[in-house]
């Protein structure tokens, strides 16, 4: 019974956000702050899943300026945990197939997110250059998941280099956002599904990196995020 009630509540809440968010985004068509507003609406749905979420923002996070945010991508529940961490004037980069998701696709496009054709590698590479231009022209930050896919319990997967190429080209820092382990933690038929911690780390400067050593930057960010996720998991285990 609890499972059924939750599914109904989540469907209605998600549909309401998608419909209202689409109207809101069309009125402010592709305004850079649309994404953060809608993302925080989704981020407030976590009580419907029986999850407590603690959001930790780095000191002076509101003064980050243009940057590339990178997050660990675990599963679909990221929409109600990590989504609340999206800052104003931040848009995400997603695959074009998101357009075909009923209700959500039009919202994703109208709110100002950037769609990427992942099947066309040469075009995807040029898109990283376009991202760098847009960061400065529109005073934007970009949110990306460098793993490229959901990890689904496999730990922090190896990073692709697109986000780091864009950061180096734009001359902006990388800001990691880490979420504690979610794998098999949420059971919709269970009243209390525990606690999750999402933490935004201080910016990582990219000025000392170039295209030639971009993989070193990716590896450094991967190590920082892996250590942070392990720390968050240990903290929760001790509570």
Q: Characteristics of this structure?
A:
single chain, 239 residues, seven-stranded mixed β-sheet, Plipid/glycerol_acylTrfase, alpha/beta
Structure explained in plain terms:
It comes from Chelonobacter oris. It catalyses: a 1-acyl-sn-glycero-3-phosphate + an acyl-CoA = a 1,2-diacyl-sn-glycero-3-phosphate + CoA. Pfam families: Acyltransferase (PF01553). GO terms for molecular function: 1-acylglycerol-3-phosphate O-acyltransferase activity. Belongs to the 1-acyl-sn-glycerol-3-phosphate acyltransferase family. This protein is an alpha/beta fold. The protein has one domain. It is 41% helix and 14% strand. The protein is built from 7 helices and 7 strands, in the order ααββαβαβαβαββα. A 7-stranded mixed β-sheet has the order 1-7-6-2-5-3-4, sandwiched between helices. Helix 4 links the parallel strand 3 and strand 4. The chain starts with a helix and ends with a helix. The model has no long low-confidence stretch (mean pLDDT 90).
């Amino acid at each position: 019974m609890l499972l059924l009630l939750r599914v109904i509540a989540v469907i209605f809440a998600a549909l309401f956000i998608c419909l209202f968010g689409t109207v809101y985004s069309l009125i402010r068509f592709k305004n850079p702050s649309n994404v953060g507003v809608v993302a925080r609406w989704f981020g407030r749905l976590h009580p419907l899943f029986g999850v407590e979420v603690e959001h930790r923002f780095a000191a002076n996070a509101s003064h980050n300026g243009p940057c590339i945010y990178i997050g660990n991508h675990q599963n679909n529940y990221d929409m109600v945990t990590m989504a609340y961490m999206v800052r104003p004037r931040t848009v995400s980069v997603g695959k074009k197939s998101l357009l075909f998701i009923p209700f959500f696709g039009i919202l994703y496009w109208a709110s100002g997110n950037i769609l990427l054709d992942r099947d066309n590698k040469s075009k995807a590479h040029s898109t990283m250059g376009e991202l760098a231009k847009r960061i400065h022209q529109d005073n934007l930050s970009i949110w990306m998941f460098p793993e490229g896919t959901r990890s689904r319990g496999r730990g922090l997967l190896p990073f692709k280099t697109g986000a780091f190429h864009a950061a180096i080209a734009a001359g902006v820092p990388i800001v990691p956002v880490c979420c504690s382990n979610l794998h098999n933690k949420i059971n919709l038929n269970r009243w209390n599904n525990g606690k999750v911690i999402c933490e935004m780390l201080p910016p990582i400067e990219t000025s000392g990196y170039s295209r030639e050593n971009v993989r070193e930057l990716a590896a450094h960010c991967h190590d920082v995020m892996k250590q942070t996720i392990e720390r968050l998991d240990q903290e929760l285990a001790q509570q």
